[in-house]
Design a protein that fits this description.
This protein is an alpha/beta fold. It contains 15 helices and 12 strands. Strands 3-2-1-4-5-6-7 form a 7-stranded parallel beta sheet, with helices on both faces. The longest helix is centred in the C-terminal third of the chain and has 29 residues.
Length: 384
């Protein structure tokens, strides 16, 4: 039996690295039996994933392929057909190795929160071949549902949701194949590494993305809220600020807005940026664990804070952030919806974090161990 992970993508998103690494540890099977399709095997090897999973390189988009795709789009005037051609080129060679005894895990966490995509293509391909498929550690809101998604949700053999709000959405659809466990990344341990010099004082770690801010700079409505937060930290506290990029992919690279902020405040030595490319996910988790507070846009950066009992605010914009915080019984002040917020809400939440930090830390210390224990049942649920 093989476990196939066609939507691992690659560790340029440290959240993808975290999901794949934690999944291998949860399933505890030889790396020869768990196979991940990687867009960047060189990076994934540098991050150490090759020790736990067999990496297969995704087909490159050759010039011939690009020309065919462009012609198909021009001749048919159909973006869907061009996208389907891309998916066949990318995923079909990988999926052909599957037999009826194998299992496909559709990873990616929030992939179903966006438009119709490769989750549907890969699941329908395996469903047509009679291969068991599992939607693994997912989040999806009611507003994200489409007829195509609902159909493919019915075709998964099992669905593992990572928070109870998604479970509610799916059970309201009449789905019976749903179980809820924490995100698999909660089981990962921090990997001790050398800390940046910014840790000579207490540090607040901040992770930002273009998704929450609305651009790669702070010239947006929510960007203005970030500015007010930073200026309050610099003027009213003694905290050093460490900006921690978590996704390094082209098109959504956290380093762009990080570098913008560092340049904007270039005369202030209390603001620093972490060179995240030099660290794997578990090392980033260690750095986050050493922060006194954390504010994060990326879900798996916030999970690192939660799992190490670091008081944190999630800059959530979808069901995943709200659902995980709800299941951890965290107060509503620790979630700021970057798409639907009131003026100064972020600053108010930060003041709450300052005033209640130790109480939040103790709550996490009491909650997280039992919460993580729920993951002990994932492997038996999967193989049953």
């Amino acid at each position: 039996m093989k476990i196939l992970l066609p939507i691992h993508l690659d560790g340029g998103n440290r959240g993808c690295e975290a999901i794949t690494l934690s999944t291998t540890k949860l399933l505890n099977i030889p790396k020869e039996q768990i196979i991940a399709l990687s867009n960047n095997t060189q990076l994934d090897t540098r991050l150490g994933l090759n020790k736990y999973v067999t990496l297969q390189a995704s087909p490159k988009a050759t010039l011939q392929f690009k020309i065919k795709r462009k012609l198909l789009k021009i001749l048919t005037q159909d973006e869907l057909k061009a996208t389907s051609y891309t998916y066949r080129h990318t995923y079909l060679p990988f999926l052909k190795q599957a037999s009826e005894n194998d299992i496909m895990l559709s990873t990616g966490g929030d992939m179903m929160c966006y438009g119709n995509n490769q989750v549907i293509y890969t699941n329908e391909m395996m469903f047509s071949k009679g291969v068991k498929t599992i939607l693994w550690g997912c989040s999806i809101g009611k507003e994200n549902l489409t007829p195509e998604k609902i159909k493919t949700l019915q075709h998964f053999s099992k669905i593992y949701t990572r928070e109870s709000l998604t479970t509610e959405v799916l059970t309201n659809l009449g789905l019976k194949n749903v179980a809820t466990f924490p995100d698999p990344a909660f089981i990962l341990n921090p990997e001790v590494c050398q800390l940046p010099n910014v840790f000579t004082k207490d540090v607040i770690g901040i992770n930002l993305s273009n998704y929450v801010v609305g651009d790669y700079n702070l010239d947006t409505n929510f960007g203005n809220e970030i500015k007010k937060l930073i200026e309050y930290i610099l003027q009213e506290t003694k905290l050093n600020i460490l900006l921690i990029p978590h996704v390094l992919w082209k098109g959504q690279d956290d380093r762009i807005i990080t570098n913008y902020i560092v340049d904007h405040y270039k005369n202030n030595s209390r603001i620093n940026a972490l060179n995240s490319d030099s660290y794997n996910y578990c090392q980033l988790r260690y750095i986050i664990s050493q922060c006194k507070y954390f504010i994060g846009a990326r879900t798996h950066a916030v999970i690192s804070a939660y799992s190490t009992c670091t008081p944190a605010i999630a800059l959530g914009y979808s069901i995943k952030s709200k659902g995980i915080a709800k299941d951890l019984n965290l107060p509503k002040e620790l979630i700021v919806d970057s798409k639907n917020y009131t003026k100064d809400e972020l600053l108010t939440s930060f003041k709450y974090l300052l005033n209640s930090g130790e109480e939040i830390r103790k709550h996490l210390q009491n909650t997280i161990p039992e919460y993580i224990k729920q993951l002990n049942n994932v492997a038996s649920w999967l193989f049953k």
